[in-house]
Batch of 2 targets.
Target 1
Amino acid sequence: MSTPRITTLENGLRVVSEDMPHLETAAVGVWVDAGARNESRAANGISHMLEHMAFKGTARRSARAIAEEIENVGGHINAYTSREQTAYFARVLKDDVRLAVDIIADILQFSTFDPEELERERAVVIQEIGQTRDTPDDIVFDDFQETAFPDQPMGRSILGTPEGVSGFGREALVSYMAEHYHAPRMVLSAAGRVDHDDLVAQAREVFAELPSGGSVSREETRYNGGEHREARDLEQVHFVAGFDGVSYDDPDYYVAQVFSAVLGGGMSSRLFQEIREKRGLCYSIYSFVSSYVDGGIFGIYAGTGEAEVEELIPALSEETVKMAGSVNEDEVARARAQLKAGLMMSLESPSSRCEQFARQLLIYGRTLPTAEVIAEVDAVDAAALRRFGARLLNGTPPTLAAIGPIGRLESYTTFAARFGAARIGSTDQV
């Protein structure tokens, strides 16, 4: 695998690319260092609304023209909003990279935010919010996030609320974009059959209107913990349990990844084997790590029946505590192999490479060599996992979010005591 090339333009826009000469396609996109955590309470959801509106017409292209131009050449274009970043990306044949870059540059600098288009898209976003609220295994993660990080941007829904979205006017979108969409906070990334020099030359031309100043404004992340439970007439109880996690630059970042893989990362993981295979208490259970620039979350999700939750929560807690003190080298070796295989497989995807480069530049200010990442993973041993387990369980209080028929779900006091946590918080709904 070749080394990615990086060029910083005069306005501060970073251009990164990796040529994969055996391919006939390329992935290209712009990642912006702005997301839901950059919003005020009143502006909650505006990053996501802006992502939608970027495709609704520019000074040169109508919304239909944007879709038709990229699909006329067999390509596709999309976007997403996360808590810390917003991305606009395309996948095209090698000869159509210039077209994709031109369209992305157009929507990021010359979107008109037509009021009629805004009204239509506002209704679409409100429908998206409604769909999420009707999907319990989606909404429980929003409840979990809000409980872990209450009264701060990091805890609010990326989609916002129907009430908030209904209030966004054209000027709010223009103002937010002017405040956050600055060249030094953006990365143009490409991977696949691409020529770096051609990409840089085009970027210098088509991104010339990007502002070159500005600084990052974000509220500090403050983990709290506690509980949120909502009774609903559903077939299953969906819940997420978790703890204060690690930031991207935390010394335990890779330790947390391996810990999660051992605990709930696959069919051989402890939770899957004990909870699903041995006891048959659920269909889906897994652990996850979500890291941010200044904090993070370690969590476990499961969906189970009303009766089964009474046994599942104690079993999950017991297995988590047990693993923190008894993980062995065979388990760690298997988890390391899973992580490294996933990394190596991602290297074969131009879309994955494209995203990796952009996110690494925004987070670390550099791309991470594959050998460096593998070395970090290989350095994790059972002793490191036991130390991390103690850090996880002996730190701040756990977070619990649950939705569904929760009558047999034990109290937060009992749940927290299983991990040795003392502080109690609650935001019950019935």
Target 2
Amino acid sequence: MSVETHRLANGLTIVGEHMPGLESSTVGVWVKAGACNEAEAQNGIAHFLEHMAFKGTKSRSALDIAEVIEDVGGFINAYTSREMTAYYARVLGADVGLALEVLADILRNSTFEAREIEIERGVILSEIGQSLDTPDDVIFDWLQGVSYPKQALGRPILGPVENVKRFQRADLAGFVATHYGPENLVVSAAGKVDFAALVRQAEALFGDMPASAAPAPEVARFIGGEKRVEKALEQAHFTLGFAAPSIRDEDVYTAQIYSMLLGGGMTSRLFQEVREKRGLCYSIYASITPGLENGMLTIYSGTSGDQISELAEVTVDQMKRAASDITEAELARAQVQMKAGMLMGLEAPSARAERMARAIAIWGKVPDLSEAVAKIEAVNVSGLKAYAAEVCAAGEMSMALYGPVSGAPALADLHARLRG
């Protein structure tokens, strides 16, 4: 398997990878714009736009869009993140051209009819309501908000209700005009792909788009803070957040391995101590979310209201211990877990297509997988201990709590315990 890339004169990049032995393909258009590219008054519009892309074009109704893909046994979908919006389809190799034509149609020719906007507005308001009724969803939005207050990176992807209620066609069209230029688009395909044919079609579908320069998103700064919402729930939901390296930072591999051995599986320190030895929770985990300019280390668990204090204190105690007694065996296990997770995850065309699109957005090229493997293997125990100590000594941290959380320690007390 080999990755091929091509850049059109207007700045749009095409990337593809033929995967022998497969009959299916994933093809999509990744847009280098998401919630981080929104002004405060626009918060939620990138996600609203993603919904509206499927609601009709100049030549297709919403039903036509669904039927043309499903009539060939395919699947079409989209998602919005803080830094990107993706529109993609999974089809048989023979139908890659059809799928790309449909994707180009919804990206370039959506009509944003007033009636459809009102219908989708109701759908998105229901989605927001559903999120607010799901504690382990909403608590991460709260953690993001207190970590990056009054910044685009701290705002929810779905946006606030008041924004969603007032968006109109001009708002959607304006965001497209500003952020959906060809230099912000990556066409990516993996699976049964004829790359030369993909390039020819992308040129025909997107080559006439005029080059433009989208404004860069603001660079966020981790501030930290606390949000706790007391509510009569069965579980007390608990999250901690810390600044972490960006995806471009060489330290990101150390940070990811640290999060793996801290809370990445059943053998991790938090799982063993908090669940297996003390029985304080059903699940607990740590993860790194590395963005283009910032990253965040997140720890999450849920427990009973009368155990929330012990769980919080044991969690930071385990973080302190890691700064001094990480072992070679733990490092080796975390390295293997990380490599296996990455390589096994990339056996699906959809994962391959996404990886390539994100790599183009980040570095302008697709690094060979061997580079990532080598960087994982280069992490050592001394570097891990140093990173763990750096996390403990950080001047800022954040915490979000939801449920019967009156007995939880204050953020300042946890922070002092971690640094002490």
